UniProtKB/TrEMBL annotation:
Name of the protein in question: Alanine-glyoxylate aminotransferase
Top-level lineage group: Bacteria
GO molecular function: alanine-glyoxylate transaminase activity; L-serine-pyruvate transaminase activity
Essential cofactor(s): pyridoxal 5'-phosphate
Pfam families assigned to the protein according to its UniProt record, in alphabetical order: Aminotran_5
Gene3D superfamilies per UniProt: Aspartate Aminotransferase, domain 1, Type I PLP-dependent aspartate aminotransferase-like (Major domain)
Family: Belongs to the class-V pyridoxal-phosphate-dependent aminotransferase family.
SUPFAM superfamilies assigned to the protein according to its UniProt record, in alphabetical order: PLP-dependent transferases
Keywords: Aminotransferase, Pyridoxal phosphate, Transferase
């Protein structure tokens, strides 16, 4: 017997309002990026599209400040970039020093264990940056460690760690570095080649102000050599970088790996083009200037930051919720009355902190002014 067809639901087209996104991401998307995404879809092996992919790679190399050949955007969000780094590099039984100072360091640990690796965690209180002295102790205690993994910009707490110093330590102790730059790319100084970063991943939806769903990654020649020397195949077919590279490199020789998210890649191309047009130093300085402006206004409202001043991320401001204030009620008033989204606290900071994002296109004067005015009115 054939089952009767499930009746078609009657559903109106989805028309989201225009929110002002000042949470931990996704951030406000540049209007020209949204426009780029709605351009006609072409085939993902169309010669014109292949030409755009070559430009995209060049733009990613600029954003990461790297000449790494293996630089591309994974067709999935930042979590897939994280997983790509771990599944390609870490083989069963290999030891990884994982720094934990928030939610995302813990996710790195889970990735290591799912690869059959041995995670040695270096723990910090929430809101602290990763301490290079603690990391060096761990590296001395574990001379057999093969990798050092840490989060450059911890989105759950707003803390910035010293990626340059940590990668120098990794090299000194013969480890490859794996760096989470989901929130840092485009918002604070980041130099992949200069700092000797071996594997790095980011996300399209933070300081690049692109639509969510892509994860830029880059692997150094040393990381590529480690991948090539694997004794076991990468357990994920989709994330196996040696297979994906046949699509991302080689111009006309490109071979089918998966159907690329064509329109989303147009969007990334446009957002990275805008970043290159502005210039990295200018983008870093703009994020810092907007953070300073926000900081002054928050000070006038009597609101404190979670993170000590030298380690604060300009693009992710974690602030304490004033005593006696109803966290959820304030955030829903901001959303409903001002169309303004700020982020709730995560993990240890849930119910204690808000997270105000100043990312990419969102890091601009009118956003800071609106956020301060709205918070002032709602908290009055
Ligand atoms: N790492 C960090 C530091 C993040 O902030 C996030 C997302 O917020 C991720 C990883 C995961 O990225 P996605 O949500 O795009 O999968």
């Amino acid at each position: 017997m054939t089952l009767a067809l499930i009746p078609a639901p009657t559903i109106a087209a989805f028309n989201p309002p225009r929110r002002i996104l000042m949470g931990p991401g996704p951030s406000d998307v540049y209007p020209t990026v949204l426009a780029a995404q709605s351009k006609p879809t072409v085939g993902h092996l169309d010669p014109l599209f292949v030409g755009m992919m070559d430009e995209l790679k060049q733009l990613l190399q600029y954003a990461f400040q790297t000449r790494n050949e293996m630089t591309l955007a994974i067709s999935a969000p930042g979590s897939a970039g994280m997983e790509a780094c771990f599944v390609n590099l870490v083989e069963p039984g290999e030891k990884v020093i994982v720094c934990r100072n928030g939610v995302f360091g813990e996710r790195m640990r889970q990735n290591v264990e799912r690869c059959g690796g041995i995670a040695v965690t270096v723990d910090h209180s929430w809101g602290e940056p990763v301490d290079p002295a603690k990391v060096e102790d761990a590296l001395k205690q574990h001379p057999d460690a093969r990798f050092l993994a840490f989060v450059h910009a911890e989105t759950s707490t707003g803390a910035l760690s010293d990626a340059k110093a940590l990668c120098a330590l990794a090299r000194q102790y013969d480890c490859l570095s794996i760096v989470d730059a989901v929130t840092s790319l485009g918002g604070v100084e980041l130099r992949v080649d200069d700092w000797g970063i071996d594997a790095i991943y980011s996300g399209s939806q933070k300081c690049l102000s692109c639509v969510p769903g892509l994860s830029p990654v880059s692997f150094s020649p040393a990381a590529v050599a480690k991948i090539k020397a694997r004794k076991t195949p990468v357990q994920s077919w989709f994330l196996d970088q040696s297979l994906v590279m046949s699509y991302w490199s080689g111009g006309a020789k490109r071979a089918y790996h998966h159907t690329a998210p064509v329109n989303t890649l147009y969007a990334l191309h446009e957002s990275l083009r805008l970043l290159a047009e502005e210039g990295l130093p200018q983008a870093w300085a703009r994020h810092q200037a907007m953070h300073q402006q926000l900081k002054q206004g928050l000070h006038q409202l009597g609101i404190d930051f979670v993170v000590a001043e030298p380690y604060r991320l300009p693009q992710l401001n974690a602030i304490y919720i004033p005593a006696g204030v109803d966290d959820a009620a304030v955030r829903s008033r901001l959303l409903n009355d001002y169309n303004l989204e700020i982020g709730a606290g995560l993990g240890d900071l849930a119910g204690k902190a808000w997270r105000i994002g100043l990312m990419g296109f969102g890091a601009r004067r009118e956003n800071v002014a609106l956020c301060l005015q709205a918070l002032g009115e709602v908290l009055r």
